[in-house]
Specification:
Blueprint: H1 5-8, H2 16-29, H3 34-48, H4 54-66, H5 71-84, H6 87-112, H7 118-146, H8 150-165, H9 170-186, H10 204-228, H11 231-244, H12 253-262, H13 269-279, H14 289-296, H15 303-325, H16 329-332, H17 336-365, H18 369-383, H19 389-406
Helix pairs in contact: 2-6, 3-5, 4-5, 5-6, 5-15, 6-13, 6-14, 6-15, 7-13, 7-17, 7-18, 7-19, 8-9, 8-17, 9-17, 10-11, 10-15, 11-12, 11-15, 13-14, 14-15
Length: about 400
């Protein structure tokens, strides 16, 4: 694999606190979802600070799109590894970018159970409507960018039907596997981008160890949880599995997490939807939603400890995968079957997200004509008005408060 001076040897090596400070500012200001996050990274770290070349940055994004996990967090982690020369730099980047949102959501989880006044109930309902509008926008946006020909449309439709009819956490794996197999059988692959511009200080041995750790955890955690009957291990397993299967953006984690925490009764549907709506008002990665879920879950561990366990368990697979795959990317991208399978997977995840939009979001939240009007208004503001998500959160939250007071 070729190396370039601007990526393998950055202009100046960074230290932990420098990387932490830069990403902390990004974590406090990066509203708008994964695509917006990548734009903030590009402006701050590529154009202004010169941590990596533009070509190298584009290649990192290409790799993150191939792997499951939160793409913006994976790219940020990789940039931290590059800047800091190893894992410590990656951890500094992840902590700085993620912790502001985690702390805010833990605080929200602590107070949400006490929301009993009419204006508070109205606010929570407004946040639930935000979640419906946000997911509808995600389905719309992904469908426009990924598709489309008749074969991909067919994969998405079958995936939607499977997600709505199959039950259990492993149903999501079946949907994704169907997409991959259909992609192999129906779609001609193509060679992916070259990531040789973005060589990080990771040997093939280190990469292989990270991939082995991912495989051991992915296969071993369910067996260990089943053997011990430990609720803690069930919690870790559910969030780790969800983080291992998210293709196509942070919003796709919604149906996976629903099966993990709502189906067994650990979190109520109302709390789940309200927490997801609150997450849209926050900067930073959507995966931070795990902090809220872990905090409100029952039985213990919950609270701050449960929230942190859930966050680490959800993020860890994506970080292990991007760290492990970097040394092998140039070889993998030449396998056309991989590209074909991933096109099928990307179509299938749209089906997953469309199913989540209907159940649980629409069925548990939209109860009348007024809710339909507000949801359509939020969706239209996002799609046609290009309003930032946080602005829609504020608008529907204020409307929810007003309606709660007037009810």
């Amino acid at each position: 694999m070729a190396e370039t001076s601007d990526s393998a040897h950055p202009p100046q090596s960074g230290h932990f606190l420098e990387i932490l400070g830069v990403f902390l500012r990004l974590g406090l200001l990066s509203f708008g979802g994964p695509i917006a996050h990548l734009g903030y990274f590009n402006e701050t770290l590529v154009k202004r600070r010169g941590w990596i070349s533009q070509a190298g940055y584009t290649d990192l994004i290409a790799l993150s799109q191939l792997l499951p996990g939160p793409s913006s967090s994976q790219v940020g982690f990789a940039l931290g590894v590059l800047r800091g020369g190893g894992i410590a730099g990656g951890l500094a980047a992840w902590l700085g970018f993620t912790m502001p949102t985690v702390i805010l959501l833990l605080a929200f989880a602590h107070g949400a159970s006490a929301f009993r006044e009419p204006w508070q109930v109205g606010l929570l309902h407004g946040l639930k409507l935000v979640a419906v509008a946000i997911v509808a926008h995600a389905v719309w946006s992904m469908a426009r960018t990924l598709a489309w020909d008749r074969r991909l449309i067919a994969i998405a439709i079958v995936a939607t039907a499977m997600a709505l009819t199959l039950e259990g956490g492993w149903a999501q794996i079946g949907v994704i596997a169907m997409g991959a197999l259909a992609g192999l059988g129906l779609i001609k692959g193509g060679e992916g981008p070259d990531i040789s511009h973005a060589v990080l200080p990771i040997s093939r041995r280190q990469g292989g160890m990270a991939l082995a750790a991912f495989a051991v955890l992915f296969l071993g955690l369910p067996l260990l949880a089943a053997a011990t009957g430990s609720h803690l291990l069930d919690l870790i397993t559910g969030f780790f599995r969800s983080g291992s299967l998210v293709f196509g953006g942070g919003h796709v984690v919604l149906p996976l997490l629903h099966d993990v925490v709502v189906a067994p009764g650990w979190v109520s549907v109302g709390d789940f939807v309200a927490g997801y709506g609150a997450t849209q008002a926050m900067p930073g990665p959507v995966f931070s939603f795990a902090a809220f879920l872990g905090a409100v879950a029952s039985p213990a561990p919950n609270g701050v400890l449960g929230g942190m366990i859930a966050v680490v368990s959800l993020f860890l697979p994506g970080l292990l995968l991007i760290y492990g795959m970097l040394p092998f990317w140039n070889d993998l991208r030449r396998i056309t079957a991989v590209q074909a399978a991933m096109r099928g997977v990307n179509a299938a995840v749209i089906g997953l997200l469309a199913a989540a939009f209907y159940q649980p979001l629409w069925t548990s939240t939209v109860t009348g004509v007024g809710d339909i009007v507000l949801t359509l208004g939020g969706f239209s503001a996002l799609v046609f008005g290009r309003a930032p998500p946080w602005l829609v959160v504020i608008a529907l939250g204020v409307i929810g408060i007003a309606l709660g007071v007037l009810a």
